Amino acid sequence: MYFEIIGEIKEVETIAVGGRIRDIMRLRKEYGPGRWRKMKGIAKVRLRSGRICYAEIHWYEAHGIGRKKMKIKRFWE
Predict the structure, then answer these.
(1) Phi/psi-derived region of residue 53, left when phi > 0, alpha when psi is between -120 and 50, beta in every other case
(2) Largest CA distance in the chain
(3) Which of 70, 62, 59, 58 has the alpha carbon at shortest distance from 32?
(4) Residue ranges of the alpha helices (H) in 1-77?
(5) Closest by CA position to 26, among listed 15, 38, 14
(6) pLDDT at residue 76 in the model
(7) How many helices and strands, by DSSP H and E, does the chain display?
(8) DSSP state of 27
(9) How far apart, in whole angstroms, are the C-alpha atoms of residue 43 and residue 3?
(10) Where are the domains of the chain?
(11) Number of neighbours of residue 41 by Cβ within 10 angstroms
(12) CA angle 61, 4, 41 (to 5 degrees)
């Protein structure tokens, strides 16, 4: 699903760190070693259809590497 984040991500929360992340080996192989964290937050997004709404976003991030694999988990109406 394609989407664009409009503005800032709010209510950012860490879900898991390091070895507690299910896909940690894939992340390290694809992007390199780092202190990986699985994060979540709420942001205003623009969908491919042009619709704008709030959604809960999940992503992985590591210092020096940045945010990777962002996805929408649910919509907030």
Answers:
(1) beta
(2) 38
(3) 62
(4) 24-31
(5) 38
(6) 86
(7) 1, 4
(8) H
(9) 11
(10) 3-76
(11) 16
(12) 45
Residue with tokens 């259809």: 49
The single residue listed with the structure tokens 């202190």 is 35
**Distance between CA atoms of residues 57 and 22, nearest Å:** 17
Instruction: Answer whether 47's CB lies under 8 Å from 10's CB.
Output: no
User: 1 pLDDT exceeds 70?
Assistant: no
pTM for the structure as a whole: 0.90
* Residues 6+ positions from 22 with CB-CB distance below 8 Å: none
pLDDT in tens, 62-75: 999 999 999 999 99
What six digits make up the tokens of 11?
Answer: 């209510």
CA separation for the pair 25, 41 (Å, rounded): 24
Using an 8 Å Cβ cutoff, are 59 and 67 in contact? yes
* Nearest Cα residue to 22 out of 38, 4, 46: 38
Structure-token match 């020096």, residue found: 64
